[in-house]
Amino acid sequence: MSIRRASNVLQIVGFRSRPFSSWKLPGQYHDASSNATLGIHVFRCPDAVGIVAKLSECIASRGGNIQSIDVFVPENKEIFYSRCEFVFDPIRWSRASIDEDFAKLSKTFNAVKSAVRVPFVDPKYKIAILASKQDHCLVDLLYGWQEGRLPVDITCVISNHQRAPNTHVTRFLERHRIPYYYLPTTSGNKGEDGLLELVTDTDFLVLARYMQILSEKFLESYGKDVINIHHGLLPSFKGGNPSKQAYDAGVKLIGATSHFVTEELDGGPIIEQMVEQVSHRDSLRSFVQKSENLEKQCLWKAIRSYCELRVLRYEENKTVTLLLPIYCRSRLVHNHQLAQREQMSVRQIFYVC
To answer: What's the predicted TM-score (pTM) here?
Structure first.
């Protein structure tokens, strides 16, 4: 970890007095012994002086404590983005009061987006998974969900391919009582009316190698986010069996992209991308396996980032993915002047990598 020009910031936010063993990593949401509960807040508003100061004051005034904050202000654009993780005592700061306090902050800065999530209190996101014939992404999500590593509730699995009753996917779904719906599609009927009826009550959709194009009409009717995954062999290798085409062409780098679905085919805002090198030593089998592993990891990471409020829309076709924590102690920011200095330091000179 490198810290540049940060000595004054350390004195403000209390790094020197805070041992490394006391830091909590993302995902360590709840401390039963201290009754501390994790909250997550994301913010997008016109840029102004003092936003971080007011955010710190809002949390500290309720006895809360900021654990990490990531801030982004695009160059030459007066837009402020932030994601903050904080801990609080739910007895002193109720869930309803949290919403009220951040709503006031949102109004103060004319925020375009202000969202709060308390993972141990709020319901998990409800999702439906759409998949076609290939199972690798679907199976990976199902087993991750079973192990509790995917913070969602899977309401159903929908496919345009029928699966035999004794396959591992079918048995898994039956064992966990997850409905499976087979919606056949043709060139003239994509079954979107039935699909819309099945997914109306979900929070977002996941396309786990679903090889059908969702129409603009469906996307407008659904009105919520849809996350897709595709391999990184497009547009060079189109049509059937792109992995073999790429293998035969001797490519040296493969990848996967997870993105939001829009009416433009595979053109929505990118959430996550991953790459891996391949070589002449790879067989077709190992080549395909590496490609599929990338797809699974990339989709998994995109869903986690989305559920943890790390992904914010940026401009028309980009995203801001707030992942790098900048640790600070809000209770040490005890007056307005000091808070102003802390806010400037975080945004201008303090970067942890």
So the answer is: 0.80
